Amino acid sequence: MSRSNKNSHADGSLLATLGRLFLRDCKHHLRKQSDILNPICFFVIICSLFPLGLSADRELLNTIGGGIIWVSVLLSLMMGLNQLFRDDYEAGVLEQFLFTHTSLTQVVLAKIAAYWCLSALPMIILSPIVGTAYHLTGDQIWVLVIGLALGSPTLALLGSIGSALTLNLKNGGVLLAILILPLFAPVLIFGAGMVNAIHIGLPVNAQLSVLGALMFGSLSLAPFATSFALKNSLDY
Amino acid sequence: MNVLLKFYHRLGSPREFYEISGSLIPWFGTISLILILTGSYLGLVVAPADYQQGESYRIIYVHVPSAWLSMLIYTVLAVSAMIGLIWRMKMAYVVMICSAAPGAWFTLVALITGSLWGKPMWGTWWQWDARLTSELLLLFLYIGIIALYNSFYERHLAEKSAAILAVVGVINLPIIHYSVEWWNTLHQGSTVIRSDGPSMDVRMLWPLLIMAVGFNFYYGLILMLRARNQVLIQEARNSWVAELVVNKGQAS
């Protein structure tokens, strides 16, 4: 792998290739802004709908705020995941990658990284604002932000598997939700659980460790599963 | 060993599988029928009533075997998915996809009987208890596999996609299970669920085990019946299927 890479690119180290792929995807996303902005708007809108449906009670909002923000992030990220490989697939770029010396796993990893930076990161940045609207305390907001930062890569990585599996299906969107939302349950439990635990004065080290473990576990396994699923979807 | 290996290879061929399963089906049917009838009689009539729960505990004889089976079937499904992905064995995918629907049904039966049992015992149809919740998530995983398989037009894509999902699911299942357990113990200080009551009386335990084995044979029966249909559909273009159909037609 590395040898063939050296032959094809003058400066073709693994990281350099990853970096180039990452920048390419970022540019692509930034040119098609609706892909990035829609899920973020969706996130803010669902978060502001819940109080309308429940009540504006301070105590209640404080109790449920963490969970609601987490679920909203889950759903919004999933909306964008549907598009993760689709544009490249429809343009035929994905198939071209199969014929280059770049491994598909690398392409997948770069795509997920770019997606995370442009989709999950803005939501993480917005989450303190939304959290304030839910009357979360300072500690809770900190824990929320750290939890999202640790948990959302796992969501993107697991979601990429579902996205690859449903790539060439016309109505992949709803199916994607059925496939991956059950897999998101552990991240949600630990992430949202932390926000409530800190409020009643419990330590959150255990949850942080588990979220970190889940992130590294999925980081080391999911890209391979995704590229395998992509090859299957491309019938390669 | 050689005999076993040969048997394994024979099962790998759809035609051989069709013949072998044809001769096994009456056995599985009879054994499961006898065991389930015996277990029901022993469980519903012979076994004594529970000193805490009275007669209503007897739903255990359907509930627990279904719950055990729902987990066993997912294991079968995931193992056959892996065999399919690694050795590209046709029959492994057949076993995988034919296990999905029975697995989902047994999960649903476990949930429904559990809910029926929960109403008189805990005073509620549904409790966000760790076991109930992870069983519910298991049902969603089954539904995902079935939905993914059915959404493809080309079968070879459907099989492989569903297999990948099954393997991803089986890696996640323990994580889901333990996270749900952890979540539940954190949130519920006082719970309505009774702490482990009396350890089971032998007269209660035996019917349960008999029912569990009977349910396993029943699953084997259903699996074979479904797999035989699937094999016939998949191999419809092969001559042996045509001969089979012609011979059946002449016989009747």
Q: What is the rounded Rg of chain A?
A: 19 Å
Question: What is the arithmetic mean of pLDDT of chain A?
Answer: 88
Distance between the termini of chain A: 19 Å
Structure summary, number of beta strands of chain A: 0
| Helicity level of chain B | over 70%
What report would you give on this structure?
The complex is a heterodimer of chains A (236) and B (252). With 236 residues, chain A is mainly α. Chain A has one domain. In chain A, 83% of the residues lie in helices and 0% in strands. Chain A is built from ten helices and no strands. In chain A, helix 3 (33-53) runs antiparallel to helix 4, helix 4 runs antiparallel to helix 7 and helix 4 (58-81) runs parallel beside helix 8 (138-165). Chain A starts with a helix and ends with a helix. Chain B is an all-alpha fold. Chain B has one domain (26-251). Chain B is 81% helix and 0% strand. Chain B has helices spanning 2-12, 14-46, 60-87, 90-122, 130-150, 155-187, 202-234, 239-251. The relative contact order of chain B is 0.16. Residues 187-195 of chain B have low confidence and may be disordered. The chains are: A mainly alpha (236), B mainly alpha (252). Chains A and B meet through helix 8, helix 9 and helix 10 of A and helix 5 and helix 6 of B.
